[in-house]
Structure formats: structure tokens, C-alpha cells
Amino acid sequence: xxxxxxxxxxxxxxxxxxxxxxxxxxxxxxxxxxxxxxxxxxxxxxxxxxxxxxxxxxxxxxxxxxxxxxxxxxxxxxxxxxxxxxxxxxxxxxxxxxxxxxxxxxxxxxxxxxxxxxxxxxxxxxxxxxxxxxxxxxxxxxxxxxxxxxxxxxxxxxxxxxxxxxxxxxxxxxxxxxxxxxxxxxxxxxxxxxxxxxxxxxxxxxxxxxxxxxxxxxxxxxxxxxxxxxxxxxxxxxxxxxxxxxxxxxxxxxxxxxxxxxxxxxxxxxxxxxxxxxxxxxxxxxxxxxxxxxxxxxxxxxxxxxxxxxxxxxxxxxxxxxxxxxxxxxxxxxxxxxxxxxxxxxxxxxxxxxxxxxxxxxxxxxxxxxxxxxxxxxxxxxxxxxxxxxxxxxxxxxxxxxxxxxxxxxxxxxxxxxxxxxxxxxxxxxxxxxxxxxxxxxxxxxx
Length: 447
Known about the structure:
Structural class: alpha/beta
Strand content: 15-25%
Shape: globular
Order of helices and strands: HEHEHEHEHEEHEEEEEHEEHEHEHHEHH
Radius of gyration: 23 Å
Number of strands: 16
Largest sheet: 6 strands, parallel
Helix content: 25-40%
């Protein structure tokens, strides 16, 4: 067979593989959508009752999980329920409802989470709020007391609903890091007395198989790659973008979430953890356990948490713009490993760290993906190398036309990294590039 025939055969095989992947994604999403429709129909009842609206604003998926669980409790009591993301809800939904239960997290220092950003900007930011005098409501606000504006968005939502004339059915409940007592109180408010079911699967013992220092000589604190072998006799499943949750023994009130940096096909669960070092030389409770105290071979209880807002989902067949800094490369790496496995090559990585000499986290792997075509483009920004410090958000503005070209081809954007600095900087850069209205449309479309 000559070279031309071989190339044609290879191209045909590639197209066939791509078509098979597209069909697999299509049927998986169709089954998932069908399951959601069946569950929604079951919750809605026979149409004889006005359903209670159960609205969620989620960042990592916890609020969504509690919303569906809440709707299940209502169904068990013979009540109809309708579950919606806040970004899917409009003024008409609120005006038609008689009762609404709001479950929402807060992003950073008081901002709306991704799953409520459009609702916050369009409805809550409107000059004239809808008149909601016929609506009774309750708010479950999820937060973390380490932030100054604890449950800030949940509080703002509660105040907005009250100003719009809605009647509080119960006082706002605020939950610090999945506090079980607060969630039990929410269960009672909804209308029952049984304790809440588990929102997430039980933690399982994972064994630390390897730990590697990733940035020796760095001006920053040490960053470690960790590989955990799955529990014996089990084959845990997760999707790229999901989280591993660690509850440190002796500190059950503050579980820590880490982006999973691998996919199940890797055979182990990978984390990328920056060691927190206090002024007195002691290590952070969770990062110290992961990066120092836990011996290789030792076991640690981890819970896998779905992060639906960060999964590929309906974006699986789209081009991806992946933006991150520091240990945020972990969540982006899981997506790239999934894309490499599925033969998806329309990926662009923009990544920031301190120094090129010491902080090329997963650098060899990224270089290999670029050579093989998994990554069409890589932009690395090392803030401490040039005379003038530059960050990922500055690079975005420099390549504005390319960003717009990728978005015009249907690209989805994923951002993973430090909340302080990068996240707000990237958001501001994207707003400058696309305009506020276009960015809202991207958010509403799950892109």
C-alpha cells in the first residue's frame, strides 16, 4: 500500500473514531437528559397542585445536590416540586409560584456563584424588581466562615426577596461547611422531621501510592503531586472536573475540596497540593497532612464530589479554552487527560506561575500534549521573570482577537486557580474582551 493510501486509511480511521466519540457523547447526554426529565416529571406530580419552586445557585455542585434532595422530601410528603438553577429562573417563574425554596452558595467574598450569576445580574440588578407579594420563601445559604462575607450572596438574595415583597416562611439558615445540624434544621423547615440523607457518598480509604515535589527551588511554597490508589475491591468513578473532599481527623467542621487531576482510566486519583506554611513554621492542617505527615503507603478517607458546573458535560465536543494558575492546573489537567483519551485536539491552555525555571507544573506532560496536537496552543505566563509582572489576565487581553475567534467557533471556557487575584482578573479581562452581555450568554449556555 502506497503512502497516499495509508494516509487516506488513517484519515478514515480517525474520522470513524471521531464519529463514534460524538455518538457516544450524544447518547450519554440523551440518556442523562431523559433521566432528568423522568425525575422532574415524577416530582411535578399529576398537575393538580402548584409545585413548590426549588431553586439553586451552585458553584461546586453542593447546592444542586441539596436542591434535588429537598425536592425528594417534598415528593415524599405528597407535594409537587420543580427544580431549577437560579440562572434558568426568570421573573415569570417567581410570579407564578406560591412557594419557593432557595439553596445557594457564595463565591469568594460575597459574590454570586456561577449557577446564579445571570439571575444576580439580570433580576437582582434590575432597577425595578418584580412584585412578589404572593410568594412565600425560605433561603438556605451555604458558606465558609473563613471568608469575611460569610454567606454573602445568600444574605443578599434574602434581602432582595424581602424588598420585592415576598414573605419569609422561615428565617434564613446559614450553613458553615456542610454543618449537619444546619442541614437537619433545613429538613425540618421543608416540612418533615427525619434527619437529612447523605448528600454525598461516604468517604472511602484511599492509599497514598506516591508523593512528588513538583517545584524544587521555587520562590513559592512547595507544591506536591500525590497519587492515591483506590480502596481494595472497589472501582470508584468520577468525571474530569470533579473534586476530592478531605475531612481532617479532629477538624470535622471544615472539609477541604481539591480538584482531581486525573481520570479513572489512570488507575489512581491524583491531587496537586500547595503546602500551607504559617508564620510560626507550622503547616496547615490539611495541606500538612497531605504533603508531609501522611506516609507513603498510609490510608486517608476521601469522598469524591461531583462538580457538575466544572464537568465537560455538553461541552465535550466543543473547543476548550482552559485558563488557570498555580495548583489550579489540577482541574485543567483532568480535562486534558480526558480530551487526550477521547482524541479531542481543539484545546488551548493559558497558565500562570512564578518562574519558568522552577514552576513548570506538569511541564513535560503539557509539552508532550502540544507536540501530539492535543493542545493546539499553549500560553505560559511567568510573573516573576519579566521586569514588569504580568499575569494570565494580561495575556488574555494581548490575545483578544484569538479568544474571540475561538468563541466564534463555539469554544467553552474553564477557569481554575486562585480566588484572590487571578479569578477576578480573568473575569474582568473576559468582560473587556467579550462585553458583559456576551459573557452572560456564555454563562447561561454553560460555556
